[in-house]
Design brief:
The protein is an alpha/beta fold. The chain has nine helices and seven strands, in the order βαβαβαβααβαβαααβ. A seven-stranded parallel sheet has the order 3-2-1-4-5-6-7, sandwiched between helices.
């Protein structure tokens, strides 16, 4: 694989203001792509954009609310208007407006929480992928869709079952979209991160000791970093992965969840 495997490609990375999304956006810029980035927090996005431009590539900052599906579709539309094409969509935006409730078990969690979690992790990516696929088909040049899932989509935990179920659904959609879009030369894959340093994990780990304890549950004895996902995300969008579709790759430091 060349040192610029995505040279002059145009990519969208949702949820790119921080964490994994920001790491993926910067990795794509380093790989030669221009990147449209979206999130609710514009100031953080603008910092990501500056770092993309410092790597010699173009950035487009777009506001997106994952609960407002027209705004999700508008990210694709505005990217096409600005850059004239779309090669890669990374569905990364995620989380919960109420992290604590989102991590409760079945008996303690109100149905409104699972509704929110599925809107965030299933319906919003669905809206973005559908719009992107329509554009890629119209272009006639194929494309790539990458869903950022979770290792918990494979190994559910009773304490995070709403989140786990939503990511399992996203994994299944990844396979279904790969089958339907394959004839149009659109590849669809997913990445399933394990416990990765992010704004969400900062809320979950009350102190450094709790973080160290979590790291000890990982065979490689550390939490994941956004950069740990970058190589796979670049690879899956490159020509080196041109016969890979419908796969979800778990990147968890060897950890299995129970």
């Amino acid at each position: 694989m060349s040192d610029k495997p995505l040279l002059d490609k145009v990519a969208i990375v949702t949820g790119a203001s921080r964490g994994i999304g920001k790491g993926l956006a910067l990795a794509y810029a380093e790989a030669g792509a221009d990147v449209a980035i979206s999130a609710r927090t514009i100031p953080d996005l603008e910092q990501t954009a500056r770092e993309i431009e410092a790597r010699g590539r173009k950035a487009l900052v777009l506001h997106m609310d994952s609960f407002d599906y027209p705004s999700v579709e508008a990210v694709v539309d505005r990217t096409l208007e600005h850059f004239g094409k779309l090669d890669v969509l990374i569905n990364n935006a995620g989380g919960s407006r109420n992290v604590e409730d989102g991590w409760k078990g079945f008996l303690d969690c109100d149905y409104t929480v699972i509704d929110e979690v599925f809107r965030m992790h299933v319906i919003s990516p669905y809206a973005a992928a559908r719009r992107a696929a329509q554009a890629m088909i119209k272009q006639g040049t194929g494309g790539v869709i990458i869903n950022i899932s979770s290792a918990l989509g494979f190994y559910p935990s009773t304490t995070v079952q709403n989140y786990s179920a939503s990511k399992a659904a996203l994994n299944e959609l990844t396979k279904l979209w790969a089958v339907e879009l394959g004839p149009h030369k659109i590849r669809v894959n997913a990445i399933g991160p394990g416990i990765t340093r992010s704004a969400t994990t900062e809320k979950l780990f009350a102190n450094a000791e709790a973080e160290r304890a979590a790291a000890q549950t990982v065979p490689l004895r550390r939490l994941g970093e956004p950069s740990d996902m970058a190589g796979m995300a670049v690879f899956l969008a490159s020509d080196a992965a041109q016969w890979i579709s419908g796969a979800t790759v778990m990147i968890s430091g060897g950890q299995r969840f129970t």
